[in-house]
Amino acid sequence: MEGHHRHDRDRTVALAALTASQLYGRARDDETAGRLTRAASLCQEALRRSPDDDLRTRIIVTLAYLDAERGDTDGGIARCEGVLAQPDHRGVERGRTLAQLGLLLMRRGDAGRALDAFRTAVPLLTGEDAYLTRLYLNRGNVYLQRLDLAAAEADFDRARDHARSAGAPPIAAKALHNRGYARLLRGELVGALDDMGRARETLAPLSAENLAVCDQDRAEVLLAAGLIDEAGEALRSSAGVFGRRRMRQQQAECELILARLQLLVGDRNGAERSARSAMRRFGAHGSHTWALRAEVTVHAAAVASGHAAPGTSSRCEEIAVALAAEGFLEPATRARLVAALAECRAGSIDETTALLAHVRLTAATSMSNRMLSARAHAELSLARGRRSRALAHLRGALDRLAVWQATFGSLDLQAASVIHGRACALLGLQCAVEDGSLATVLEWTERARSLAGRVPVVRPPSDPTAAEQLAELRALRTSAHRDSARVASLETAVRERLWSAGAPEPAEPVRVDELRERLHRDDGTYLTYFHAGKRLYGLGVTPGSERLVDLGPLPSTSELLDGLPADLAMVATRTSASMHAVLVSSIRMRLARISERLVGPFADLAGNGPVVLSATGELADVPWSMLPGLAGRPLTIARSATSWVRAPREVRVRRPGFVAGPNVERATHEVRRASSCWSGHEELTGDDATADGVRALAARVDLLHIAAHGRHNAQNPLFSALELADGPWFGYDIDHLARIPSTIVLSACELGRSGVSGGRETIGMTVAWLHAGSTCVIASPAPVNDDLACEVLARTHARLARGAAPSAALSAAVAEFPDEPIPLLCFGAGW
């Protein structure tokens, strides 16, 4: 303790020898490092010692900023106004004070006065590049809040130019980052991430605070894209940094974004807690407008959970008026929509109508507000007994979402972004089930089944950098000393580089007459399973009949499959004859139970012809071809009826290609057996079975068979991988193929599995091939015994070579082994 006190005395003595200017310099250093209380103390001492009026002004302005950062925004504003009230305060120092006042007013949410202060400061700071840079950055942020995106972008460009003149690369990077945020508000997510990513390269190494700001705004882009897990991780990390640095405004902003995220995924209690915490922090910090925005989210969570308090609607309308008066149109719109939903669910139709009449959607309206508006109008229409009008509102919203999704070339971005439309799609399904007509139910199962599947195939442009990153990732995955941080960084970079733009031409869902005409050619049956509310439904359609069945409460995947995956994994290994018999008996019992629930209600409808089936994401890993009632019949698993009906047909295989990966005992034998069925083919085995080899081979063949170990990645299904001679070959590698074979055969275990994205959209290696342009993929959602797979696929190829459709060839080959569990499935348009 004695040493500690001596250290304090030594520091006091050292400070006593400093001039006011030197003390102020140290205060600025402490401010930059986040030591706000010490910075304020040094500023106060410097102010007492300074005889220079200009220096005193700069110190007071800095103290104003420190007041605001420590929660006294009103006190900081009062300091600036006190300086400006002095009659002899003019010129550059007056401009600096006005610029600081504008920043504090912006933080408080007083946008109109902030813009006035900035506008007055500009001519006073002529030639002061460093100060003009910050002024334009801050004023651009005010324009962002008011959704005046053109003015914001112009200010960010000015800030960048002045930063370059001042020799300040970090400030230029901040301007680029903010321009990326403007692109986010325009809905240009790919461009926003590109700008923010380039700015991050400069800003992140400078300080933990800079990194946290970059990640906070990046999280908003990820949230807009529906990438929930990544957004949540970035927000929690940034909030932690801001909390440790006592940067309460930024911490509260992170909490508010997190509340929106939680509301989007249905965590209403979590959303309310996060929003209340943000509201308290904003209030304590003097950020009154921000506190109002947080309060709207509190009310939105209460309305969503059905626990809205009396007066919720009137309070939200008060907030909307206050926000709109300050130019915050987007949060004002959300407040009115929350008010309208509260009134509608309370049965107040006239009040709901009046509130919605004041809602104006513009080109800058966010996708989440568009979806919320559609739900509010749909619920109002339902309250009036106008179901068809409600469906029209929901249909229009989902069409708008599909057009937006089509600007993304990337499968995972398309799949994630459907989360914005899930609530509208599910409400549409509930309406369709109540309506009961085949046309309506089919339309809405299609809209809900594959929101991303409406987007046409768009191949991303060749990207050498992404290809190099995948090659490095391959090498790291096989390294004995794996750099996990570098692996994570590369995975993020690969994903985001492939989020390229597509073409806004979403397909319309298939009509009943189109589906029946296609089924009639082969006397086929279409089965689809979906959930509406908390119940599972099935719809069966044949050329001449249909049936809609309520299958009861929606089961969880674990409840439905109940031990089946473990049994299938065990039976795929080499076990004793007695153990094999026990496992087969258990599997049959489980399959019979699943079939009784899912297939039994359609047994007399489906006949004996081929079947096309699509299912909700919760049923993605059911081994459908093994279920009694479907086993032995040509079966194809389609993402939707629309994708199946409109897929190319009668694609004749002329040139097959085969790949044998390493460390698979029978891979080479499997390739030789299968390829012997064809008169002309190519093979890659041993050291030739590399990523580059597969890439070149895929460009030359129209059927590609890969026998290799496979690994499903549940957290990011497009990083599921095949093991090749030079390391793993990922789902993302498919985007780098110059040409896509029409038929794919994957004998690797589990690569027929799909993960479910935040929007409940299934995604995985098979979906990646189909999205890229393949017509059909043969794969398994569960492990398969290597010897058995070799025999079944060789016999499948024998039939394919004679012109059989893939699903017919596979089902006939499997039927030759009636006593063996074989979960191989045909995905896409297999017949």
TrEMBL record:
Stored Pfam families: CHAT
Coiled coil ranges: none
Start and end residues of each CHAT domain: 593-814
Gene3D superfamilies membership: Tetratricopeptide repeat domain (1.25.40.10)
Source organism, top-level taxon: Bacteria
Protein known as: CHAT domain-containing protein
Organism: Solicola gregarius
